[in-house]
Write a structure and sequence with these properties.
It is a single chain. The chain has 450 residues and is an alpha/beta fold. It is 33% helix and 19% strand. It starts with a helix and ends in a 19-residue tail after the last helix. Mean pLDDT is 93; it is low at 1-28.
Length: 450
């Protein structure tokens, strides 16, 4: 059996999309889903286009604080969706939700804008697909879980490594067969370089509502590098690579090894290599330990120096007593400890089946099959009143662990987590940092107020 056929079979949970669609939509008899997109930049459009590929969809609204960006998205959607209609555009997600009342809301905003639209979408009766990390701070995440449960909504988080065919194949070949053996140590890492230095600040362009972009975050003046892609280099808007990249592989490791909350989290690092006058204020170096007792999960981030993992620069290495399993976004490698030969696998390439992926230049070809399957899982869970594979609670655990790693680094001490109370044990100062202060008139949601 050829590997491509193996990946597209039901083995490893990577069933063919044709089979999944037939079961999920009863041969096309299902009415089109009324879908709205909040945040119409890079990954917002990417998620929407993959949803259009696998489900009957009518896009009823697009929202973004960048007028040119949302107008471009509307034109692209009119070319992609079956009706060829150009959806209405909005600059405020609240108006979109009130006027359109969508069945499904996709949220692809910068990280500091995930919480409020998600909570409002749940209140408006929409099921939600929200990008990771789900929140900027821990209490936001707690509020998001509470909103999903209170309003009975299905919420999938864009942690699509849980639906990645080659990673599920690796799970079935080496973890479920015990070829890897007992795993006691996992290294998660990113050796990608950080962004270059920002130019001087300037006035925002007329088509961008910078006041709304900043929203509830601590104010930061506009810089032409921040929008649309380098906001992750700003601590006001993101948790750096820990929130962006660690969360993906921490989450899939938790999924593969059935791990919940760690006993404690500790981290060290900071801005160690950037020049003193840099306006990029996220860390360039970090080592974090997520202590699960009999399994130690370590995150290593270094945005400078030589990459020690040229084939797996962003990924996870699982160390078992029978071998080592290297996982990345593009491939996996199994290295047996004793006799036997190394085994290699690559991502499932579906460009031939979905040539339109190449039309949207921002499409991550290696991630497209995973996102399509992740969307299918979301819609199946929605239809069957079940929790999706990356349910909001699972997204909260992975996101909060990364947020707590940054907090541990900031405070310079280990944090023990009480999962029942949702607080750091015996550390009042740390608990004061679980919710940031919202700017202006924006109100920080809590589990009690959603």
């Amino acid at each position: 059996m050829k590997r491509r056929e193996f990946l597209k079979s039901a083995f490893g949970g990577a069933a063919s999309l044709a089979a999944v669609q037939a079961g999920a939509f009863a041969a096309g008899a299902e009415a089109a889903l009324r879908v709205a997109l909040i945040g119409s930049g890079w990954y917002g459009k990417t998620d929407l286009f993959h949803l259009i590929q696998v489900a009957p969809v009518e896009v009823v609204g697009l929202c973004d604080v960048d007028r040119l960006m949302v107008e471009e998205a509307a034109e692209l959607v009119s070319q992609r969706q079956p009706s060829k209609k150009r959806p209405p555009t909005y600059g405020d997600y609240r108006k979109l939700l009130a006027e359109q009342r969508p069945d499904v809301a996709l949220i692809g905003t910068p990280d500091h804008w995930h919480c409020l639209p998600m909570v409002e979408a749940c209140k408006a009766g929409a099921d939600v697909y929200v990008q990771k990390p789900i929140s900027y701070d821990v209490v936001e995440g707690q509020a998001m879980v509470a909103a999903a449960r209170k309003y009975g909504r299905t919420v999938q988080v864009g942690l699509q490594r849980r639906s990645t065919p080659h990673l599920l194949e690796a799970r079935d070949r080496f973890l479920r067969t015990e070829k890897l053996g007992k795993v006691a140590y996992v290294d998660i890492h990113s050796y990608y370089g950080g962004p270059g230095e920002f130019p001087p600040n300037e006035a925002p362009p007329e088509h961008l509502d910078w006041e709304m972009f900043v929203g509830p975050a601590t104010w930061r003046d506009y810089n032409p590098r921040i929008h649309p892609r380098s906001w992750r280099a700003c601590r006001e808007f993101s948790n750096g690579q820990t929130g962006d990249l660690c969360v993906h592989f921490l989450d899939v490791v938790r999924y593969l090894l059935d791990l919940d909350w760690p006993r404690s989290i500790s981290a060290s690092g900071g801005i160690l290599m950037r020049r003193p006058d840099s306006t990029i204020n996220v860390h360039d170096t970090q080592t974090a330990l997520f202590d699960y007792g009999d399994v130690q999960v370590v995150w290593n981030q270094r945005n400078w120096g030589r990459n020690p993992e040229p084939e797996h620069p962003w990924g996870a290495t699982l160390y078992g007593d029978k071998g080592t399993l290297k996982l990345s976004i593009r491939s996996y490698d199994f290295l047996p400890s004793g006799s036997g030969s190394p085994e290699h696998g690559d991502f499932l390439d579906e460009r031939d089946q979905y040539p339109e992926d190449l039309q949207h230049k921002a499409t991550e070809i290696f991630a497209a099959p995973a996102t399509r399957r992740h969307m299918q899982d979301f819609l199946a869970a929605r239809r069957n009143a079940q929790r999706p594979v990356a349910d909001i609670e699972q997204g909260h655990i992975s996101s909060a662990c990364c947020i707590l790693a940054n907090l541990s680094m900031k405070l310079g001490r280990s944090l023990a987590w009480d999962r029942q109370a949702g607080r750091v044990i015996g550390d009042d100062e740390a608990n004061q940092h679980l919710a940031r202060k919202y700017r202006g008139d924006w109100k920080h949601p809590t589990p009690e107020t959603v």
